[in-house]
């Protein structure tokens, strides 16, 4: 059969590997729940072009490696570190694999507060799902310059963080023309489902030195770097604080302030991106009943509107 095209790109692996890990410290337990995607690039072209499976690490094996490292890795409770450990092992174990792409989605679990002898306390091994937002980590591990010259790019952030404020949000002075029906408003409900991602400066990764290439050694922890456990906490807190406290002239303006705060507080973060879809709440017109519910100061009953919705996005880079 004659060929009219050539293979310009190939990447494969395992998606939606669901992991719950329990780490026990006596009666005090920790848990993480992850959805993991692990994809590989390398000298795999012949599996596509010549039906040569000898270059294929089975996706089932990738799944098993993910579970095995979830068992043995001392870094499993931290999604950035676990993703880097998994990616490093994959490119180190297989000579013909030159890049690994690992995405870890962490679901929320928090300790259940209970009554204790000395007042409220966190339960040592009982947890609740206290939100639908997720931590997201994306790692690209590159061994193309040698198995002893590993480099990584890491992007982390949050998805599906639903927020709402009932005042101190306006939208006025926008373009008006024959297509404009939107009424200017100096006070409205502002709600969005926040997707935040921030990218760290590229970093060198120490190659494992053990025979099974299962070790992963952390460097010295630099504040504001990917190794700093406080970065996700600061980024989430900055996002929520600016959303709540900003007297918003627009979603765009509030977004920009959020991103500037994340950059200012985390020295190794190079870019910050947000995607903020509008969650519209429309005041119900009750004038037919002689009831005022449209004037902002008297609007108290709203109709949630799922679609269509505005979508505001931007990326802010460090100077």
Automatic annotation (TrEMBL):
Signal peptide: none annotated. Its EC number is 1.7.3.3. It catalyses: urate + O2 + H2O = 5-hydroxyisourate + H2O2. PROSITE patterns: URICASE. 5-hydroxyisourate binds at residues 60, 171, 188, 251-252, 278. Keywords: Oxidoreductase, Peroxisome, Purine metabolism. GO terms for cellular component: peroxisome. Urate binds at residues 59-60, 171, 188, 251-252, 278. It is found in: Peroxisome. O2 binds at residue 278. The active site is at 14 (charge relay system), 59 (charge relay system), 280 (charge relay system). One of its GO terms (molecular function) is urate oxidase activity. Pathway: Purine metabolism; urate degradation; (S)-allantoin from urate: step 1/3. GO terms for biological process: purine nucleobase catabolic process; urate catabolic process. InterPro entries: Uricase, Uricase_CS. Catalyzes the oxidation of uric acid to 5-hydroxyisourate, which is further processed to form (S)-allantoin. NCBIfam families: urate_oxi. Belongs to the uricase family. This is Uricase. It comes from Mycena belliarum.
């Amino acid at each position: 059969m004659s060929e009219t095209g050539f293979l310009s790109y190939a990447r494969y692996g395992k998606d939606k590997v669901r992991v719950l890990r329990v780490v026990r410290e006596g009666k005090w337990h920790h848990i993480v729940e992850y959805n993991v995607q692990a994809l590989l690039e390398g000298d795999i072209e012949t599996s596509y072009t010549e039906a040569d499976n000898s270059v294929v690490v089975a996706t089932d094996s990738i799944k098993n490696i993910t579970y095995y490292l979830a068992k043995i890795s001392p870094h499993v409770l931290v999604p950035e570190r676990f993703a880097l450990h998994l990616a490093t092992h994959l490119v180190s174990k297989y000579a013909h694999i030159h890049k690994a792409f690992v995405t870890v989605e962490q679901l929320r679990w928090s300790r259940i507060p209970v009554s204790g002898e000395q007042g409220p306390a966190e339960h040592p091994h009982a947890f609740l799902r206290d939100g639908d937002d997720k931590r997201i980590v994306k790692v690209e591990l590159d061994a193309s310059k040698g198995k002893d010259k590993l480099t990584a790019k890491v992007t982390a952030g949050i998805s599906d963080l639903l927020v709402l404020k009932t005042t101190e949000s306006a939208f006025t002075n926008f373009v008006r023309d024959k297509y404009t029906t939107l009424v200017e408003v100096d006070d409205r409900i502002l709600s969005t489902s926040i997707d935040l991602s921030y990218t760290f400066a590229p970093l060198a990764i120490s190659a494992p030195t053990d025979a099974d290439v299962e070790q992963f050694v952390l460097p010295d922890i630099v504040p504001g770097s990917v190794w700093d456990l406080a970065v996700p906490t600061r980024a989430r807190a900055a996002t929520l604080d600016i959303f709540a406290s900003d007297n918003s002239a627009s979603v765009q303006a509030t977004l920009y302030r959020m991103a500037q705060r994340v950059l200012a507080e985390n020295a190794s973060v190079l870019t910050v991106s947000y995607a903020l879809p509008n969650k519209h709440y429309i005041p119900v017109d009750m004038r037919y009943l002689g009831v005022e519910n449209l004037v902002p100061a008297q609007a108290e009953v709203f109709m949630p509107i799922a679609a269509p919705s505005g979508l505001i996005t931007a990326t802010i880079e460090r100077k």
